[in-house]
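User: Hi! I'm working on a homework problem where we have to compare a predicted structure to a textbook description. Could you give me the structure for the chain below?
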Amino acid sequence: MHYVIVGGSAAGINAVEAIRSQDKEGKITLISDEEIPLYSRCLITYFLSGAISEDKLKYRTSDFYEKEKVDALHGVKARRLLPEKRKLILDNGKELTYDRLLIATGASPQTVEAPGSDKKGILGLRTYQDAQLINDRLNRVKRVSILGGGLIGLRAAYSLHARHKEVKVIVKSNQVLSQMLDKGAANFVRRKIEEKGIQVMTGLAAVEFLGEKEVTGIVLDDGRRLECELVIVGKGVRPNLELVEGTGIKTEYGIIVDDYLQTNLPNIYAAGDVAQSKDLITGQSTINALWPCAVAQGRVAGLNMSGKKVKYDGSLAMNSVEFFSLPVISLGITRPKGKDYEELVKEDERNFVYKKVVLKDNRIQGMILVNRVEQAGVMGILMRKKVDVSPIKSMLLEDRFDFAKILSIIKEGKEFFTEREFEESIITFKK
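Assistant: Happy to help. Predicted structure tokens:
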């Protein structure tokens, strides 16, 4: 059996481990267009800020491929897929045939289409190479403009503020972290980062980039000009679908997969930020472009590729971040639409505390926790298990969350979760 994996990040590496758990002898070939292997993208901004060294980016040992008997081709791109021949054409001219194929090509940063967008000094922040390009310019940079107020944009802003740069964040919507938080919670985050010296400008977009070869500033859609020597585009990502174009593999936002992460074509699977799968809460087909989702999908895809039939339960929108000692966690639906939802909110502006639980039919559909995040683990379990929380609804926003009391109050609670599950979930969120 020859397994071919296109993509060497979270989904691809976890697929390797899953395949090897079932098939010790089958041939595995992994193709990645990145030169640097086995690093965590989640840690790139920590590296950029100087909080960690380059060696701390590794999340597998350097001999991983050797131990797992993987033929890893880094710095090579899969250019064309021929499903009818079970063949891949690589950009180095070589061809590979496969028995099982996993497409884990991930996603790329969204670009800004505006005059001057081809100038040097306008960069994304997705890969180790991106971080290095930014790092190499910083000794001649005083001012930075960040386009986008999502996780990528704010993490970039936080990192460069730590490098003593003057940072402005330009956000097209009326709040930061619009995919993660509601406006109430977002205001707490904005207030905290502005107190520390990062300027946030909402309701604005860049319409032109100034300078000759190098960027020297941007023009906003209200006519204002901002001087800067570096622009980071953090406006979200788009799935890398180029490999499947014209192949007959069904796509929408991403590659559409079934409950076993198989595409509509036999022996071809997809996982990670390129795969469009079921959302655990809504049941709808979507992409939750998150590292934990890619890890889980890679594992399930690898098991199914190697013959062990395992169903993927679905992905869950889940984000955890911390800015200037202000922790923020969100899960599931945070900005519900429709009359079927109930929203419980508690806020303390003085202490930067914000809590929100979204309910539907007395079952948790989503939550936001700012500053007081200790309940995140148990909330996640209640959500995943679809527990009727009506007996404890009045307790959900309490600061002191008594796990034992909750177990005793919820009818037949022991069938839903155990003390050990609570402990493990708390450890997970602390990480």
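For your comparison, note the following. Confidence is low (pLDDT under 50) at residues 426-431. The chain is about 25% helix and 30% strand. Good luck with the assignment!
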